[in-house]
Amino acid sequence: MNLSTTIPGQMQPFSLNLAYILEHAGKFHGETEICSNMAAGDVHRYTYAEALRRSKKLANALKSYGINAGDRIATLAWNDFRHFESWYAIAGQGAVCHTVNPRLYPDQIKYIVNHAQDRLVFVDPQFVPMLEEMQHELPSVEAFIVLTDRDNFKPTILRGAVDYETFIEDKPEIFEWLDIDEQAASSLCYTSGTTGDPKGVLFSHRSNILMAYAACSADAFKLSALSTVLMVVPMFHANSWGLVYAAPMVGAKLILPGPKLDGASIYQLIDNEKVSFSAAVPTVWNMLLAHLISNGLSLPYLEEVVIGGSAVSRTLLQQFKQQYDVDVLHAWGMTEINPLGSLNRPTAKFLKIGEEEQLAIKLKQGRPLFGIEMCVQDESGNKLPHDGVSAGRLMVRGPWVVRRYYKSEEDILDEDGWFDTGDIATIDVDGFMQITDRAKDIIKSGGEWISSVDLENAAMNHSEIELAAVIGIPDPKWEERPLLLVKTKENSNLSKEQIQAYLTGQVAKWWVPEDIRFVPEIPLTATGKINKLPLRNFYGKSHNLDSDPLNLLKA
Ligand code: AMP
After folding, report:
1. Choosing from 156, 444, 511, 532, which is the catalytic residue?
2. 380 in Cβ contact with 357 (< 8 Å)
3. Whole-prediction pTM value?
4. Domain 441-554 falls in which CATH fold?
5. In three state form, how does the secondary structure of 493-518 look?
6. Residue 449 catalytic?
7. Domain ranges of the chain
8. 523/533 Cα distance (integer angstroms)
9. What are phi and psi of 461, to 5 degrees?
10. Tens of pLDDT along 421-468?
């Protein structure tokens, strides 16, 4: 495009501050409910109008505390009303809301809070003991706001600790959201890399709002003021896949599940609140289905569920449709892309084909939303055809795709602006993308990452271990679990239990592999790196865990 031939548009230069979403919901869907399952077991109900009022009180509280535009404020919390309103208050007055995943190992939490230089931490009461232990290693944090009220606030040694209700008490309900540059940072979310430290993705007001528009649209979440949305996917997982903005944008009733994500709790919420739409990783839905089956229950209100984070299985999709008449929408995304990239809704062609062919298409990760450009490339960077067969590196670009990681000096894009997702995929002639493999050496278990490299290094620290390799193997509950292959040093009598005990304490408890195999050799590449391909082919894909590994090595 030749810019010199353009003339400026004459529409209002109205910048997109995320808080306008809540402003809109509060003004025009003021009576619509937000219902939260609280950690203590009670259910909290209020409306968008109240959320807006309280969010403004918090914005005033932050301002009078001395928070400046651009300051980072961390949240370590499950999905509930206080966490929800704090997001809008923090971003709306110009600060950056940094969501910390409480499932991370304490060292990772320390790393990211220090890297972000968070000034305040908003924390659920259940995570207070963990922060008490690490606060002396978090020098940037001036005070901790505990997400509770005065009656439930327990004495704590956290510095500057105050309960949320006291923090916002007496603050005015009137606040002018900052007239912000829409490219300004609104929120920060760290993603675990394959190697090295977690990396921060710094979202902007613009990227969040554009993605929220796209998420609401009929070929995506199809949300409206008639929807009742259960936001299972945690807010610390890349903006709960945009739902935290998309639901209030259209004034949908919003259900926040708190910390309890087991089948019984999720069922209770769906049934009590007549939930029509929800989104979560496969593990959550597998737990729900198990609960439904063992208790002979049905899902009369639920219409659609978005499943992403890991691939949807045929069984999951069929069970939902055939037994509960619920449509599964397979979605793909990642933290680096805000995170929604593609979603599986049919095209006109789809209606003319047989059931089996339809199913094969529904299992794909879907078509890119407008705003995400997608292509597949071979290892030399050549574009591959969209023929549904040619598999290559999945590359994306667009207004809600990361350019560089937080505090990094370098862009992470190729010369044409494409971001390499680390996924291997095909794209068919109708634009349906399907993930066929993962180039990044990392394991996704129940929606959370396990770094194979970190686990290998932890095992290799043991004086009796010569070489260790970790690969992901399929698991019916968690989608993937790590399998640790160990070559011990001569004369070692190390047992599986000893290795597990050794790893516990070095890595998060849920990282510790249930399965550890002792092997005489671990295959290496010509350059001396662990050759995971034959290991994955053998243990991962064939599920052939009981075979003799010697045969594998001979193969
Ligand atoms: P995260 O940044 O934690 O959201 O993880 C993003 C990664 O999860 C992607 O790059 C994929 O490897 C994986 N992923 C997300 N959605 C899917 C899906 N529907 N099918 C397979 N893998 C997925």
Report:
1. 444
2. no
3. 0.90
4. GMP Synthetase; Chain A, domain 3 (3.30.300)
5. CCCHHHHHHHHECCECHHHCCCEEEE
6. yes
7. 441-554
8. 9
9. -65, -20
10. 999 999 999 999 999 988 888 898 998 888 888 898 889 889 899 899
